Amino acid sequence: MSAKLPGNAGVSVLGDKSLEFYRDPVSFCRRRIEKHRSRVFLSRLLNRPTAFICSVKGMRELLCEKSNVFVKDPTDLMTNMYGDTIVTTNGEEACLLRLSLSSLFTGPCLESTRDYISGVCERCLTELTRSGQPECVYSAFKGLGTELVLGLFLNVRAEEQPELLQEISQLCTLHWHGLISAPVNLKVPLWSSGFSTALEARDKLMDIIKNKLENETHGFVGSLRSLPLPDSSAAAQHLLLFISALIPKALASLLTSFTVGLSGNEGAEIRHQALEDPDYLDRVLLEVQRLWPPFIGGRRIADQDSPLAGFHVPKDYGVIYISHSVHRDPEVFQQPDSFLPERWSGRNAGQEHFLCSFGSGPRSCIGAKLTNVFLKEVCTYLLQHYAWHLDPPSQDLEYKWLPVSRPTNPPTVSFSCLDQTDSGTS
Ligand code: HEM
Fold it and tell me: Keywords for this entry (predicted)?
């Protein structure tokens, strides 16, 4: 017999805690973990009784062992904005879509992106010292991420078509604002002005995408055209998803955390070691994603009554895993709040699968390998070419976690060129 979930879901509408959660998801979970003395508890989110999962064990059971019971929500906001895509599909259709799409992000397709990625890094990252002023790193990395996704997925390259890149990037931002304004305007999402502007932006983006799919045969667009997909609109819907502002923001989130975490004199030794030893850089990047996962987590719906982490979860309950809290589960991560790359060659060696920044199990992120190639390229470039420090040295680095994690006040950083003979590359 499984136990009753600690906490309560309150009454419909009045008992809803969505706003409290959106305002500060980390404190929301911390308070309840302490109150219930449990890393799994019940509350009400999006007006649905929802189990919150904040332990490594619970996350693994939810996303891996019981992925057939706890399924994606087809009525998720993502469907409103992006149409029917893999993200909100279940069962056999999801399996087939994953099989098709994954081929674009692995093997030869992944290898063929490397030259483009290093070209974009080279071009964008030389700019970091050009103005002579401290850089807002989050904006700089978001620009880099945007160039990456639009060049890779849509054949729109900054050096060839700067205006088109700018136009698409602005449309993606408008589209994105609709997505994030929707939960705030929970009561009347379809009437909010942000939402209708977002839908207009989506239509314009879809016109551009369809035109590309009709006329271009090279690159990612060409590969996508030749994939077996369930219907004629699937390629366009997925391109809309892949070029969404969400991805550059997530990349910028991780790169900002990396840069801030390794800044100044305190970060100098870690920067030096990470440059000397690529395995150590891997550990640094694991620790960056552990402490500052770009997305707060993901949601599922219980397809039937089921035990989860020792508790009874009734059919139709929501379940949400909170990556920030899972990554600080003290049962697995000792000194959970400390930045300790060494843990990944010591006590936590081989436990990368206990992280969930990219989800886990059969519905984990299909872009994780590509993201890793990109992150390593950027970080290696930075380490080889620059030393950097926060400028001004004292800044408020308090994080916000939604919609994508980053310091609330965007940090500014000064980069100085390393003497190449001292940089460890010789
Ligand atoms: C820093 C970058 C990224 C992060 C942090 C990230 C994170 C995630 C997470 C947490 C999930 C699982 C969501 C869940 O459990 O509900 C996911 C799924 C997914 N990601 Fe990513 N992602 C990133 C980059 C990318 C890229 C570059 C692509 C491809 C263009 C991509 C495509 C997808 C897709 C299609 C899914 C859905 C898979 C499925 O439902 O089966 N992601 N991602």
Answer: Heme, Iron, Metal-binding, Monooxygenase, Oxidoreductase
Ligand 1 centre and the CA of 183: distance in Å? 20
pLDDT tens by residue, 68-118:
999 999 888 777 778 889 999 999 999 999 999 999 998 888 888 999 999
Q: What is the pTM of this model?
A: 0.95
Can you tell me which atom of ligand 1 is nearest the CA of 153?
Answer: 30
Residue 373 CA to ligand 1 center (angstroms) comes to 15
| 365 CB within 6 A, ligand 1 | yes
- Give the per-residue pLDDT at 187: 47
Q: Is 250 in the pocket of ligand 1 (CB under 6 A)?
A: yes
Asked if residue 392 has a cis previous peptide bond (ω within 30° of 0), the answer is yes
Minimum CA distance residue for ligand 1 atom 40: 87
- Protein residue with least CA distance to atom 26, ligand 1: 367
For the CA atoms of 68, 74, 76, 82, the dihedral, rounded to the nearest 10 degrees, stands at: 120
Domains (range + CATH), the chain: 18-422 (1.10.630.10)
Over the stretch 132-176, which tens digit does the pLDDT of each residue have? 899 999 999 999 999 999 999 999 999 999 999 999 999 999 998
Contact 317, 49 (CB under 8 A): yes
Contact 83, 240 (CB under 8 A): yes
